[in-house]
Write a structure and sequence with these properties.
Layout: E1 2-10, H1 15-28, E2 32-39, E3 47-55, E4 67-72, H2 75-81, E5 85-94, E6 108-112, H3 114-120, H4 127-138, H5 144-154, H6 163-176, E7 178-179
Parallel strand pairs: 1-4, 4-5, 5-6
Antiparallel strand pairs: 1-3, 2-3, 6-7
Length: 180
């Protein structure tokens, strides 16, 4: 089985780290993995996206034009990547700042209000983990334990005290995602 995923949004939303944690989780499960980041010249506020491929077989190329799953966190990313989701694929979007929601009928569309939950529940630093939880609910491509191991590997040791908060955010994301 192979999952080709694009995660896109503004810099500073944790797009690249979400992809990195997903890739680490795949490695923990002995999957073949590709992590291919792309970002603009601005460190925060510019656009950023990452392609993650998780597979049971060798990954031939990290460069893709179509995806099984797209996670989009802003309107420019939705505009750019909605049409790149393969028919029958999944599109997950955060409703915050989306003026023109996705319209395709040949894919499964899920909304997650991660930004609102992150703000109202004091979880701003774990916004991306809320989104990742939503992904794992609709497509359990890796186990929560593997994500937590990947998170531990990617966080500096001085931040390991934040692991329980991140796990709580992932679980919260699983609870709030809903199909459109």
């Amino acid at each position: 089985m192979q999952h080709e995923i694009i995660i896109a949004g503004f810099g500073g939303q944790g797009v690249l780290s979400m992809g990195k944690i997903l890739a680490y989780a795949g490695l923990m499960e002995d999957k073949e993995v590709s992590w291919f980041p792309s970002y603009g010249p601005e460190q925060r506020g510019g656009t950023a996206n990452v392609t993650v491929i998780l597979s049971d077989q060798r990954v031939s190329s990290p460069v893709l034009n179509e995806f099984d799953i797209a996670i989009v966190l802003n309107q420019p990313s939705l505009d750019k990547f909605e049409n790149t989701v393969k028919p029958g694929g999944i599109l997950i979007y955060d409703g915050n700042g989306i003026n023109n929601p996705p319209k395709r009928k040949d894919i499964e569309i899920y909304q997650i209000d991660a930004m609102n939950i992150a703000s109202t529940e004091g979880m701003a630093k774990t916004f991306n983990m809320i989104v990742l939880g939503g992904l794992l609910k609709v497509s359990p491509i890796v186990k929560l334990e593997s994500v937590m191991a990947g998170l531990k590997k990617s966080l500096p040791e001085r931040h390991h005290k934040l692991l329980p908060m991140n796990e709580k955010a992932i679980i919260r994301g699983m609870e709030i995602i809903h199909k459109q």
